[in-house]
Structure formats: structure tokens, C-alpha cells
Amino acid sequence: MDSTEDDISARVLLRRVLHTELPKSPVTRSATNVRRSMRLKNTPGPESPGSALRHRLKKKLHESASLSPLPSPKRPRSALANTNPPVTAPSPVYDEDMTTRGLLRGIIQMETEASLLMSGQPALQESEPNQAESSAGERTEGLSGVELSDLTLNTEPLTQVVRGLSRKKPQRVFSVSAFEEQFDQLPDNTEDISRVFHKGDVSQEKGDASQVLDLSSDSKSGLNLTLKTPFVEKRIERAGLQRKVSNRRLQSVDAFDEAVQRCLEQGPNQDHSVFQDGKTLEDSSWQKFTLGLSDVTELYVQPKKDDTMGPSAENEREHELERPSEIPDSEPLIQEEKDHELESQDEEEVVHSSQDDVYLTPEDDIVLAPTQAMTESLPESHDMELQDGEFVEEVEIGNVVEIEYENVVETEDQEVVEIEHDSVEEVEDENVEDENVEEAEDENVEEAEDENVEEVEDENVEVENENVEVENENVEDENVEVENENVEVENENVEEVEDENVEDENVEEVDDENVEDEKVEDENVEVENENVEDEKVEDENAEEVDDEKVEDENVEDEEVVEAEHNIDTSQYLVQITRRAHRSEGGGAVLGIPGTARVTKSFGAGLNPREKDLLDFVDEGRESLQDIPDEEREPLGSPEFPPPHPAAELSTPEQRSQQHEASVAEDDDAQEELNQSEEEELMDSEPPNHSPQFPQEEEEEEDDDDDALSAELSMKTPAFVRQKRVFTSRTTQSTPTVLKEVNTGPAPQVAKRGPRQKRQTGVNVLPKSYVMSVFKHFAKTKVASDVYPAINEILKKYFERLADDLEAYATHAKRKTIEVEDFELLMRRQGFLTDTTPVNILIEKYLPMEYRKLLIPVATSGNKVIPKQRR
Amino acid sequence: MDEDAAQKQRLKAAVHYTVGRLCQDISADCEKQITKQTIAAIAETAFRQCDIFAKDLEAFARHAKRHTVTVDDVKLTARRTTALYNYIQQKSEELALNNQELKEKRKKNAAKRKSKDMEVEENELED
């Protein structure tokens, strides 16, 4: 072993090499050549370790440059560390490949020999035997003068290049210079080894400038570095992954909690007192909140904290009042708060306070967003609405609604912002409702909302209504948007429809206002416009209802929400009815909410049909009324039911039960539709799914299912829908149906009665699915009114199909249709020929699961764990 | 292969001839003219349909795990065309009757023969 060399680490050697050697052009020797040369020079005797190192490095660099960046850095390393790197490594391979592995190995070996390390001598000597095979040999020795020069040339630029290229973690580019730097820093060889090791690892990529840097930095700090990647790198990496969470959330949570608590505390006391206060303070309070979103939230926060129950309530009230007028934001906030509150608490009378709290709680930026919109729009209406004693209720509801709404709004935020919350309360209520529905929040909240809405309407019939409506619509719209843009549009449509239909009370005025507001704002402009139009016409109540409906629709549209929605809507409806009674526009309200809900669902399902939505809205209202709230007056137009199923279908799965319940209410008429849709869905299943048919039947019984599935199908992609339907179907068995039936109130059942005659095969397949498939294969555009024709064709086709299969089975003197019957059929149809066996078709068209079913494979049904390949 | 092609041509020609004759009769009945192209089209269609029928019949027979094409297979082929199906059904029934009758006759004959033989034997014996 070399006396001097031993002590010196590879780094040192490298450095020496670099310094001593003159820069030369890279040697374009092949690895083998190098090897040979190295081998020839087995013993580094003639060369100093440094030179040997240099050679190695150069070689590596050269190689890496020529071959790939990775190998080269490794080589030098390996050369450095290369005491016996080749020993273990399949050196020839490494030589050529310059894999990290080889380098690492070299390093490791280096380590083991610590003392020997880089010095080429000991390594070289040892490696002699290995050299024959390993690249290490080459590395260790191969360095000739020429090579060394190459190294120097390469290393320097490399390092710079490496530095320039920052990489992810532990990758380190081997750079001699860096190496040397580190080396200097490292007192120990061991450390160097570790470093080298790292470097070796890193060397894989030349471009890891960062690594080089790291090395340098590490060397300082991490002499004791292990093979682990430097901490810095990790951090860096993580940084990217880190999410910059907005602080808003935090605030909101806290604020919300505060608000909630406050509401709880204030609770029942505040309803009226606060309400009145709110009135008076409306302007003042609101004025404060005309600030931007952020400001609003802040404002909200402050009042909460500062104010006691009363003042907070007042603030809330004010918020509420002002909402429609001044602070569009507040509403959304409120709504959001409400939503939150709702979630947290069951509607509380303190809603007012809660609302305020809600507002106050800067729950989220989202909350703010709506508020801004609110503020921007017209805060007026809201104030007006709040005036009524009912307002208290409304407030509560509104709060709840708002909270919900806000939540929803949050999601929609942007939308909300745009939407001026004329009828903050309304919106809130509606939103809340929607949210409730969506979020399956407290129903109570909805009620509260409804109440609020109603009240508001009553109070500020015009202005407020408008505002509220706008807000509501906005809210709704927003909600919708958040979830489904289409839905929103629909909702709006629904709203509009509702509004139009509702027109009971000064809806028109309100609607107009709302409409205007909405238009201005949101992305949902479309939706808003619709709503606006409708709203104007309709009464505040109508608006509210519409909003609710829209919300409902939105909710429904949203599949996710749907599940919740169903329940909520139903509940909501109940609430609505209650409110309706309370408020003047009870009838209208009832109608609206019902329809609203329904329409919403429709909206979801029937995007393109605004008009239908309108009808639906009306119908929806009616249906809603029919629904558990028998109290409701049947507003609607009979048309409503049909659309509903569509909406329902959209989310068959989620809302399966809920929806069914709600749907049941709504769709008597829709049942058929739903059924048909379901049937279609079911029918759509390939024969393989024959077992599902029974399920279908069950489902067919439930309009809801149909509606749900239909809606669902319409919304989700065909195949997804299919899956969903299937899953829902499969999951939904009689029990679910029964549940739904049970849950559905009598009126629902009654409603179903007349429509119940389920027409099997009314719709062989869901329309959306059929149309999508059809359009896919059609080269040109396809109008949607071709669906009935396609439906007939499909019906006949399937009938004939079943007939043939039966004939084939009978021909074979069997009573069951088997796969071979199908094969015969396919042959007759021309899919199968003498050249294409069935399996080919299976493999070509069916998904893996089916394939495994049909084609017995060794692994099908078994768990086969493949051998680990090393 | 040529043989097959030639065979095919001959078959086609036969079909064409038969179709032509049929069309002549029909045109005489309808007092309408039938063009040659029409006849050729009909002949070609009939020829190809025969091919399809044959394949289907074979598939049906195999489906029923038989090696012989029977009336049932034919009926299965024609089930869609009502008129043809009914016609075939009638024919098959008639055939079935005929077969039965034939069988009965054979049985009678067989019985008669037996009795005759018996008589002959008796006679012989007597004699």
C-alpha cells in the first residue's frame, strides 16, 4: 500500500490530478481501450496515485461525456474510490455502462479500504486482478497522461455545468473541483468516502449542479454525511409539494367557531331583538362592510369579537339587511357562515347572530368572495327583507342558508362575488338550502332560510326580493357553477322558470333586479340572466323559492350534492312549506321551493333545455309541493315531473335513496321517464349483465331510481354512468327501494300511483348514453330529437335479439340461453367469421374484467404473484 | 380451384336459368315485362342467399350438436320471414304425415308379408 497514497483520499488525489494535469482534449478512447490501458498499467506504480486518479477521472469524464453523463462522473469516482470496485461489479458491464451502481460500488469499496481510498496505488494494486474484468480496473489505472488531461478539461466545465443544472436530491454530479473542495473540507477520508459515495450516487447525473453544490455545502456541514440525501434537498423538494394554504381557512374556522358559539349563546334570545336592531343598524353596519372581501371578513370578525350577543346579532342583522343592499359579500359570507353554522348547529334562532357571526367569521376567502359580490351588487334588498319580524326567522334561516350558501359560495366564490346579493337572505336561504342539500346540512337551516326568504320577501317585497333573489340566484348560480356549470345554467333556468311561474308576488320586480344583478356578475351570467329574468317577474317569494329550487337544482345537479340534496330538498321543501304558510306567499313559496328543487334537478339533467327548465320549474314546484309537503300548493305545471326524472337520473347513485325520496315526490310523471331511463340503463347493459335485469326491475319501481339514474347518466359520461348505474343498481336492491318508498310520504306514493304503470322499455337506454354513443359513431352532428327514433330502433333490436336467442336455445333443446347461443348469433350477424374467433372479439372490445370472465385463463380467479425479477 | 370456379359458374348458370323461367311465368301472369338485368340480379341474389343459408344451416346443426341438417334447422333459418316460415311449416307437416303414412304402410306390408310367409309356410307344411 502506498504510504503516502493511503492517507490521501480520492479527493485529494483528484485534486492533485486536476491541478497537475494540463487540460487536454477529451480522449475518445473506448472503455475497452481504457481498460486495456489500465490493465496494462495494472500497477499504478509508474504513476502516482494522483495521476492514476486523474486518469480515472478523466476517463470517466470522457466516457461520461461520450457515453452518457452518468457514467462519466461515476467513473472518476470509482476510480477514486476504486480500490476494489471492480471486484464485485460486473465490471465489463460497468465499464461500458458506467452505471451508478458501478460507481457506487467503487465508492463503497473505497470506503471499506478507507485508507486506500482513492489513492490509486492500493486500489490499483488490488484492482489489478479485477481490472481484467471490471471497469474499475480501467478507472484505477487507465489514467494515462492523456486521460488525465481530459479529466481536467472535463471536470472543470462539468462542475460548472453541474452547478448550473440543479437537480433533485441526492443526485450529485461528480465534479472534481467540487470534489476537491469538499475534500479539503473533509478532514477524514471516511467522510470523503461518504461524500464520494454520495457523489457517486449523484454522479449519475451530470446535471446535478445542485448536488455539486450540495456536496460542497455538505462537505462543510455534512462531513458526517451519510448516504442520505442532504436535508436541504429534501426541503427543497418538499417545498414544491407544499401547498400554500391560504390562511383564510384557518381564520374562518376560528371565526366560525366563534360565531357558532356566539350564536349558540345568543340563541333564542336574539331572534327578534337582534332583528330589530339589525334593522336600525342596517345601514351603519352594512356600511362597514362595504369593504373588499378581505375587509369584510375582517369586519365580520371584529364585530363578532367585540360585540356581544346583541351587537353581534345586530351586526348579523345588519349584515343581513345590508347584504342585499350593500354588501353582497356579506351574504355569501353569511351564507357561508350559515352553512358552517348549519353544519355545526342545527338551525338556531340565533341564526341572526350566527349569521352575523358567520359574516364576521372570516371563514374563508371564499366567504369573502361572495360577500364582495354582494357588496358590489345591491345590498339594498337585503336590508329590506330583514326588517320583518320574520326576518328573524329568515335571518336564522338565512344565516343557516347563508352559511350553507357561503359554503357553497365558497366553492363558487367567484360566482358569488359576481352575483349581487340583493336578496342576501334569500340567497342565503336558498344557498343554504342548496348547500344543505348539497352538503346535507341541517335541514333546519333550510327551513330557516326558507323562512327568512319568505320573510324577507314579505318585508321587502320588491327591493329585497330582488336583491335576495339576485343573491339567491347568484348564490344558486354560484353553487351551480361550482359544481356544474351546466347545472347552474339549468338552475337559473329553473329559477327563472320558477320565478316566472311563481310570479305570485312582486317577484317580478325582485327578479328583475336580481336578474340584473346577476347578469352583471357572475360567470353564471347566463344563469343569472335567466334567473334575473325570471326573478323579476316573480315574487320575492318566488325568487326565494326559485332560488331554493335553483339551489336545489344545483344541488341535484351536483351529483355529490345530490345524495345530500335529496334529503335536504325534501326537508327543505317541508320547511319551505312551513314558511310558505307563514309568509304571504306561502302558496307561491311552496310551489317554488318544490319546483325549485325539482327544477334544479332538472336543470342538472337538462342543460340544453332552458325552456324545459322553466316548465320544470313550474312542475318542480308542483312536484315539490306534492312531495312531503302536501301543504304546498300545486303551482306547477304538470310538465314539471317529466324533467325531474331527468335530473334525478343524473345522479342515480348518490341520491339513490334521497333522490328517490325526493324524486318520488316530484316525479309521478317522471317515474315513467325514470323508469324508462333506468330500463334503458339496464337494458344498455350487455347481455352479460342479464342478472342485473332483475335489479332493474326493482329499480324500475322506483321512479326515483330512474330519475336518479337518468340524471346521473346525463351528467356523467356514458361509460361512467353505466358503471354507476350498475353499481347503484346492484347496490340498490329492494331494500333501498323500500326505504325510499317508506321514507317517501304518502303523497309521494299517491303521486306515483297514477304514473306508476311502469312501461317497461319506455326508454331502452338512457338518453344521454345513447346520444353520446350515437354521436361518437356519427361523423356529423346529431340533433337530440333523434332520440325517440333511436329508442324505437333499440327497442326492436333488443326484442329481436332476445327472440333469436330464445330460438337458438330452443333449437338446442335447452331452456337457458347460453354463451354458445350468443356465439351463434354473432356468427349470423357477421361479427364472427371463420377467421375471427370469439376470443379475439372479446379481447378487442371488452374490458379486462369481462375478458377474464369469458376467457378462462390460468390466472383468472386466482391470485398469481409473479416472481420477483431481479 | 378452377374446378370449383367452374362448378360455381355452372351452378350460377343453372340458377340463372331457373330464375329466368320463373320470371317468365310471373311476367306472363302479371302481364309485365321483366328485364334481363332484373333476372340477373335476382339470380345473383338467390345464389348468394343459398350460400348464406348453407352456412347458417350448418351452424344450426352444429349448435344442436348434430351432424345432419334437419327440418328444424331449416325452420330456424326461415323463422323471420312469416310467409316462408308458414309455408315451410306446412310442408314439413305434410312431409311428416307422408312419412308416417309410409311407415304405416311399411308396417302393414311387413305384417302382410309375415302373414303370407306364415301362410306359405303353413301351406308348405300342409303340403
UniProtKB/TrEMBL annotation, chain A:
GO molecular function terms listed in the Swiss-Prot or TrEMBL record: DNA binding; protein heterodimerization activity
GO cellular component: kinetochore; nucleus
Biological processes per GO annotation: chromosome segregation; kinetochore assembly; mitotic cell cycle
InterPro entries the UniProt entry points to: CENP-T, CENP-T/H4_C, Histone-fold
Region named Disordered: 21-96, 119-141, 301-360, 423-566, 599-707, 723-761
Protein name: CENP-T/Histone H4 histone fold domain-containing protein
PANTHER family according to UniProt: CENTROMERE PROTEIN T
CDD domains registered for this protein in UniProt: HFD_CENP-T
Subcellular location, principal: nucleus
Keywords tagged on the record: Chromosome, Nucleus
Family the UniProt entry places it in: Belongs to the CENP-T/CNN1 family.
Record domain CENP-T/Histone H4 histone fold: where: 762-857
Comp. bias regions, Polar residues: 122-134, 727-736
UniProt feature, compositional bias: Acidic residues: 425-561, 663-683, 695-707
Taxonomic source organism: Onychostoma macrolepis
Compositional bias ranges of the Basic and acidic residues kind: 303-326, 608-624
Record localization: Chromosome; Nucleus
From TrEMBL, chain B:
One Pfam family this sequence matches: CENP-S
An individual GO BP term: replication fork processing
Molecular-function GO term, any one: protein heterodimerization activity
Source organism, top-level taxon: Eukaryota
Disordered: annotated span: 98-127
Compositionally biased region (Basic residues): 105-115
Protein name as it appears in the record: Centromere protein S
Keywords noted in UniProt: DNA damage, DNA repair, DNA-binding
GO cellular component: FANCM-MHF complex
Family stated for the protein in its record: Belongs to the TAF9 family. CENP-S/MHF1 subfamily.
Signal peptide: none
